[in-house]
Request: fold
Amino acid sequence: MRLQPKKQASALINEQKRKQIDEGVAVAKKVDVLRQELGSLESQHRQFLENSVKELDLQTSSLHATITSLRKEIVELEEKRKLLQEPLIKEWQQVEDAKKDLSQAQAQLVEKENNVRKALEEVLQKRKQMIDLVLESERIVNNQKKLEQEAYELFLKAEEQKKQTDQIISQKTEEINKKVQSLEQREKAILFVEKANENYKKLLDNKEKELVNKERRINDKYETLQRTIKRLK
Reply:
């Protein structure tokens, strides 16, 4: 059987109230527990404060006694200090004078140290310059050695080239001499042939002249013979 809406709403409200009451009871129980714990903590705190106050009172009383004793001791020491200071004034003045002398000596020492430092810096600078000069000299010497080595190698190459050139010149000279000898021989042969031709030409000319003369004589004889024959007829 289903409840009517109004009854359902009333039941829900009652249920919510019941839950709220239960939650309130639970919260009240927690509050009671917290109150008990707070009461216990407050009791412990009061006990701690009381014990602390007692301890502080004891320490304060002891501290006051110590302070009183120290004050008396300070007064006595002040009196002793005054008595002891009087003979120390002169010694203190001497100490001050010694401090001044020491300060002057320290100033002089600082000045000397500065002078020594400057001199040392100059020496180091000169040493660096000397090292640079030595390194530069070594570099120059190394370069010179390198140049000398290169010059020597070039000299060797030049000598080798000279030898090769001399050999080539010698070969060419020998070839030229051979050619000159061959040309001279050919020239001699040509001259010999030319001279032989010239002699042969002269011989031919002489032969030709002789033949011409001989022919002329024959012709003369023939003409003479013809004339003789004609006269004989």
